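Please check these two lines:
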Amino acid sequence: MLEKAITGDVALIRADRTDRYGNLTFRYAQAKLSPAMATAERCTVADVRMVEDAPIPHTEIDLPGIYVKRVVAVGGDAGR
């Protein structure tokens, strides 16, 4: 028996860092469920702690920017 995947409209996730391409990295408990939620929803909004100007190295990316529709920069170094 095959179960249909659960999908939704919007995923609100919290990330540690992002670059200008929307690639995300996670810390602690964020890394467990956030990537799964982001890939299952139609629109993903990421609340990030720090925005970097330089691209994040591909070995450190936890969620590619293709899944992220919006980024909201709040927190410690958001304006950097």
Notes: The mean pLDDT is 86. The helical segments are 30-40.
